[in-house]
Design brief:
Elements lengths: L1 E7 L2 E6 L10 H12 L5 H8 L3 H13 L19 E9 L4 H12 L4 E6 L6 E7 L2 H12 L5 E8 L14
Antiparallel strand pairs: 1-2, 3-5, 3-6, 4-5
Helix pairs in contact: 1-2, 2-3
Length: 175
């Protein structure tokens, strides 16, 4: 559903409400998103220069992308190991029940666990995959036995420790 229509420059673009696919991003929008995804701290003046705009229309476009929910935020990419989190573990969690209330309870539980950095619901035999960071194996074992395994409705947890990360690229491909 189209919420409103914006005229930016000479091109008319349709904007959608939050959560809907935005199919009418033009080339400049895509360039803006690619630049910001690569370097979120770039100044508006530098960003405008990179995409061939002046600063005011560049800022309007970025604000519009923020308001539309395409840009959800800006984050620092931290080096976990330099902060003492030396291991990353993926946990495959199966629940006893897949009733909506049971799923919500589990999701609420993991939201409250700072060690869980990502939680994705899956289809198939496994209900959730979690990305967990920990300072060391002992800390992870304590987390696993005291916070994750006894969580509401958990049937089983299978874990795999990462040996190395070959690729870590947040965001989406924009080309």
């Amino acid at each position: 559903m189209v919420a409103d229509r914006l005229f930016i420059g000479y091109e008319r673009r349709e904007r959608t409400t939050r959560g809907e696919k935005m199919t009418n991003l033009d080339g400049i929008d895509r360039q803006l998103l690619a630049e910001l995804q690569e370097e979120g701290r770039v100044t508006n003046v530098e960003l405008a220069k990179r995409v061939g705009l002046t600063a005011p229309p560049c800022l309007r476009r970025v604000r519009s992308l923020e308001e539309d929910g395409v840009i959800r935020g800006y984050h620092a990419d931290l080096d976990a190991s330099k902060l003492g989190f030396t291991i990353t573990v993926f946990a495959l969690v199966s629940l006893k029940s897949q009733a909506e209330e049971a799923l919500r309870q589990f999701e609420d539980h993991v939201r409250a666990l700072p060690e869980v950095r990502e939680c994705h619901m899956l289809n198939g035999e496994i209900d959730f995959i979690l990305k967990i960071v920990s300072r060391d194996l002992q800390s992870f074992q304590e987390f696993l036995t005291s916070k994750l395994t006894p969580a509401p409705n958990v049937d089983s947890v299978k874990t795999s420790l990462t040996i190395r990360t070959a690729k870590h690229l947040p965001g989406v491909p924009l080309e």
